[in-house]
């Protein structure tokens, strides 16, 4: 692990009409880290991911990846550099079987450079690589599950498919938008080792989550956003003990008293 | 000087044609591709009422506007309402209806020099040494009045404000009790009436030809794209930009360049600033 | 067997199940049984043989010409279906491609003296490139803009040629060479259609075809997968417009003339109507739709522009009532059977 931050976000601002979604948000992420981003609904977490990965143009601010400025790049170029993301509202390619969903990222120049023209390196064609990736991510290999149409898969599998889509790109950073949401306890229990394994493979993770307990199992550093502003940053115990953070999540007693 | 005068006239006529389309799109996000057809059909309706039923001109105009408004509303109520929300199907359906109307009239024999509408007032006056006929002056006056009326209507009248609310945010308006379908119906009716009004004022200056249906549709779309889909102010300003550009090229380069200018305007806008002059950025790309 | 669809009616419901033979033919072992191979190959063979035999069966020269015209429209309809149902772009102006290809071929032939065997390929590629370039500005935008611009291009082109009186003006370019032999003319286009059909069907299941389908399904995800969707959209547009320009170039040589009417509305409307009637998304459906609509259109030619009214109304009816189209229905019947099941 190097000491230079692999991703630097400086003073990002974004307003939609009259609403200031992000205000002067800044943070750094180091290689191999897992950073959790938490905050009440509407605090701008997804907007932050959108701005970092280029899906939305920020009004001002700077995002640097390994020293390169990626602030105004197109989303596919940012992904091609290794900064990938998942989507909060899962949208697989419904008309395709699960493993074919991965053909699309494997078709990208980045995957082709990493794995050879057919994406499989010396080993095989893309279909084989897809099945391999799915196995890594937790789909049972010899079952029919990878061949089922994406529209028929349950949530747990779809979440894994989202991650698989990122993995197909051999990413350096994955920004996960609520991968734990909508999953049952047992499904989350099986996702946690997966996340840990990703970290062991050297991938940096930024996870937006609402399920705090599960998040704190993997993330050693968290950041709190509220109304688009960064409230606090640090290790989970400290952050959750912060008065302001508690007020943001639970509401302010003072306001209720004076009403 | 003549450029100024002809430019104003051309621009206002473009604005008149485009405002109906802009209204419908602004309120209900319906791209009404039958707009050009409604324009021409209204012309034929006025001609028919005038020459077959021999009714007084003013009355014919009023009758035709009512009829065309009803036709527009019917198109919405019976056809477009079923494909509401699917933008491409809306375009195909409204285009096909417009096509059916226009080609139907063409087949019915409505072509040739006999189909003209009389001007309101004969004669012309000289402005700064250039003869301008009264019809054109009336065009400018009526056009200006229409724009003013619409502005006042949407700012001060309850229904108008409701329409404006729909234009800004459909869901919020629905939550406040404004019925989206009824508003779209009113919008289509109004848009058709505006198309008819434009026809009534502009057509007396030439023949009524079926081709105009396609031409005016293209002009309306060009103006709305340049001005920004959904922005009425933008449409008016764009009308002036395109209008003057057309007059200047006609004078200095060659005639018949109207179409080229319209097409160029669209392409340039899409390349440089796709949302148009006053359009909203989020119109263009999907939400993430 | 997999459940593929349900419809609720009172206390019974209709259940659709894949036929046994459909399931057994899904794997590679289908090759080992004549019956299963037949199930897979029969429709395709019937189609190919049927098409190839058609000109021999139909004696009249007039109707053989009609078959060629059907094929011209089929190429356009293939392009439309491909763009609309596999890439998510609706092209409302097939006439633009026909006109571009037609004029390029005519110019190459009359001004440069190139024979059809050269003009057609060149017109296809060059025309495809020009059309793609002209459509490129609207690719990054929402689909509505693509529809609007494709709608306008043929209308505007026709007016421009008429107004500026270039490229032959309203008379068009005459004296374009025809094919050396009637049979070459007839079978050339039939083979082109068959090759295009099967080629496209293959393409949409290839990896790049999956990328196209991904762009239609969920373009944000494709962007997040490090792919430049504008680039892939333009490849798709190039394919479809090349098919259209090919058709247009062929048409110029059939009629030995190229003119404004190649930008006519027929070429824009019939492919759409044919796709809607024949079944969108199947690639075969639009061809079937053309085989139905174009002869009817010829029969109605005596009625003048009434035929346009006719297919516009059919188009509206199909779109509004959201019918699935003939081939979709046929494929469903072929692969599945339905039965009533008590709830």
Short structural description:
Chain B is mainly α. Helices cover 70% and strands 3% of the residues of chain B. In chain B, a hairpin with a 2-residue loop joins strand 1 (124-127) and strand 2.
- What's the count of strands of chain B? 2
Strand content of chain B: under 5%
Number of domains of chain A: 2
Shape of chain A: globular
Distance between the termini of chain A: 52 Å
CATH class label of chain B = Mainly Alpha
Key attributes of the depicted protein:
heterotrimer; A: 259 residues; alpha/beta; Rossmann fold; 2 domains; four-stranded antiparallel β-sheet; 11 helices; 36% helix; B: 288 residues; mainly alpha; ABC transporter involved in vitamin B12 uptake, BtuC; 70% helix; globular; disordered C terminus
Description:
The complex is a heterotrimer of chains A (259), B (288) and C (343). By secondary structure, chain A is α/β, with parallel strands linked by helices. Helix content of chain A is 36%, strand content 24%. In chain A, the strands form 2 sheets. A 6-stranded mixed sheet of chain A has the order 6-7-8-3-9-10, with helices on both faces. In chain A, a hairpin with a 2-residue loop joins β1 and β2. With 288 residues, chain B is mostly helical. Chain B has a single domain (2-122, 133-278), classed as ABC transporter involved in vitamin B12 uptake, BtuC (Orthogonal Bundle). Chain B is globular and about 55 Å long. Chain C has a single domain, classed as ABC transporter involved in vitamin B12 uptake, BtuC. In chain C, the strands form 2 sheets. Chain C has a 3-stranded antiparallel sheet. Chain C has a two-stranded antiparallel sheet with strand order 3-4. In chain C, α3 packs parallel to α7 (182-203) and α3 (61-87) packs antiparallel against α10. Chain C is globular and about 70 Å long. Chains in contact: A-B, A-C, B-C. At the A-B interface, loops of A face loops of B.
């Amino acid at each position: 692990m190097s000491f230079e931050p692999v991703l630097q976000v400086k003073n990002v601002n974004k307003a939609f009409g009259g609403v200031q979604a992000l205000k002067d948000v800044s943070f750094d992420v180091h290689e191999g880290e897992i950073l959790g981003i938490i905050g009440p609904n509407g605090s701008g977490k997804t907007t932050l991911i959108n701005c970092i990965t280029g899906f939305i143009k920020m009004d001002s601010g700077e995002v640097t990846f390994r020293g390169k400025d990626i602030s105004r790049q197109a989303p596919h170029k940012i992904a091609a550099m290794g900064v990938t993301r998942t989507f909060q509202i899962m949208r697989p390619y419904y008309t395709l079987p699960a493993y074919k969903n991965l053909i699309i990222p494997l078709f990208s120049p980045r995957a082709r450079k990493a794995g050879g023209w057919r994406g499989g390196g010396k080993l095989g064609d893309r279909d084989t690589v897809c099945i391999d990736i799915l196995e890594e991510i937790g789909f049972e290999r010899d079952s029919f599950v990878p061949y089922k149409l994406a529209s028929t898969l349950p949530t747990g599998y779809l979440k894994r498919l989202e991650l698989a889509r990122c993995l197909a790109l051999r990413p350096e950073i994955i920004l996960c938008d609520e991968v734990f949401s909508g999953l049952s306890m047992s499904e989350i229990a099986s996702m946690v080792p997966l996340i840990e394994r990703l970290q062991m493979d050297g991938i940096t993770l930024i996870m937006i989550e609402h399920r705090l307990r599960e998040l704190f199992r993997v993330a050693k550093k968290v950041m709190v956003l509220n109304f688009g502003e960064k409230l606090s940053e640090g290790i989970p115990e400290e952050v959750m003990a912060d008065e302001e953070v508690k007020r943001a999540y639970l509401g302010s007693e003072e306001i209720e008293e004076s009403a | 000087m003549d450029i100024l005068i002809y430019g104003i006239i051309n621009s206002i006529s473009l604005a008149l044609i485009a405002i109906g389309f802009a209204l419908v799109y602004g309120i209900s996000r319906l791209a009404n591709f039958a707009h050009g057809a409604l324009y021409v059909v209204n012309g034929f309706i006025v001609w028919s009422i005038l020459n077959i039923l021999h009714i007084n001109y003013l009355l014919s105009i009023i009758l035709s506007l009512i009829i065309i408004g009803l036709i527009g509303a019917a198109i919405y109520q019976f056809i477009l309402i079923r494909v509401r929300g699917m933008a491409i199907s809306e375009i195909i359906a409204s285009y096909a209806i417009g096509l059916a109307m226009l080609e139907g009239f063409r087949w019915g024999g409505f072509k040739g020099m006999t189909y003209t509408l009389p001007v309101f007032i004969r004669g012309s006056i000289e402005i700064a040494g250039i003869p301008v006929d009264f019809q054109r002056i009336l065009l400018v006056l009526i056009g200006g009045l229409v724009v003013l009326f619409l502005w006042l209507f949407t700012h001060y009248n309850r229904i108008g404000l409701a329409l404006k609310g729909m234009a800004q945010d459909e869901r919020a308006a629905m939550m406040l009790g404004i019925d989206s379908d009824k508003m779209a119906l009113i919008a289509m009716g109004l848009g058709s009436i505006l198309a008819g009004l434009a026809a009534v004022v502009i057509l007396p200056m030439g023949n009524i030809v079926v081709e105009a249906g396609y031409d005016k549709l293209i002009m309306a779309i060009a103006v709305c794209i340049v001005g920004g889909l959904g922005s009425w102010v933008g449409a008016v300003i764009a009308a002036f930009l395109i209008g003057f550009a057309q007059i200047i090229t006609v004078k200095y380069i060659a005639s018949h360049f109207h179409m080229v200018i319209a097409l160029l305007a669209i392409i340039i806008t899409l390349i440089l600033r796709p949302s148009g002059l006053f359009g909203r950025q989020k119109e263009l790309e999907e939400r993430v | 067997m997999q459940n593929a669809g349900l419809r609720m009616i009172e206390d019974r419901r209709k259940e659709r199940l894949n036929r046994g033979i459909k399931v057994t033919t899904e794997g590679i072992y289908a090759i080992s049984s004549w019956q299963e191979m037949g199930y897979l190959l029969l429709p395709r063979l019937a189609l190919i043989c049927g098409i190839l035999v058609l000109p021999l069966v139909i004696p009249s020269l007039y109707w053989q010409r009609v078959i060629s015209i059907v094929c011209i429209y089929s190429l356009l309809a293939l392009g439309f279906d491909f763009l609309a149902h596999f890439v998510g772009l609706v092209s409302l102006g097939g006439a633009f491609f026909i006109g571009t290809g037609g004029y390029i071929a005519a110019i190459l032939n009359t001004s440069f003296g190139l024979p059809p065997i050269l003009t057609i390929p060149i017109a296809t590629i060059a025309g495809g490139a020009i059309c793609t370039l002209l459509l490129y500005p609207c690719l990054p935008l929402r689909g509505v803009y693509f529809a609007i611009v494709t709608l306008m291009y043929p209308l505007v082109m026709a007016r421009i040629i008429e107004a500026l009186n270039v490229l032959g003006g309203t008379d068009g370019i005459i004296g374009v060479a025809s094919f050396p032999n009637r049979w070459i003319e007839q079978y050339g286009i039939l083979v082109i259609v068959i090759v295009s059909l099967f080629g496209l069907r293959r393409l949409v299941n290839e990896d790049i075809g999956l990328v196209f389908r991904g762009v239609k399904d969920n373009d944000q995800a494709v962007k997040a997968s490090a792919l430049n969707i504008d680039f892939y959209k333009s490849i798709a547009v190039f394919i479809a417009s090349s098919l259209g320009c090919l058709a247009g170039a062929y048409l110029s040589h059939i009629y030995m003339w190229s003119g404004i009417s190649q930008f006519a509305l027929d070429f824009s409307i019939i492919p759409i109507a044919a796709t809607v009637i024949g079944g969108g998304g199947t690639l075969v459906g639009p061809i079937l739709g053309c085989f139905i609509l174009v002869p009817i259109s010829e029969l109605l030619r005596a009625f003048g522009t009434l035929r346009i009214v006719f297919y516009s109304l059919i188009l509206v009816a199909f779109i509004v009532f959201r019918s699935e189209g003939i081939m979709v229905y046929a494929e469903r019947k072929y692969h599945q059977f339905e039965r009533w099941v008590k709830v």
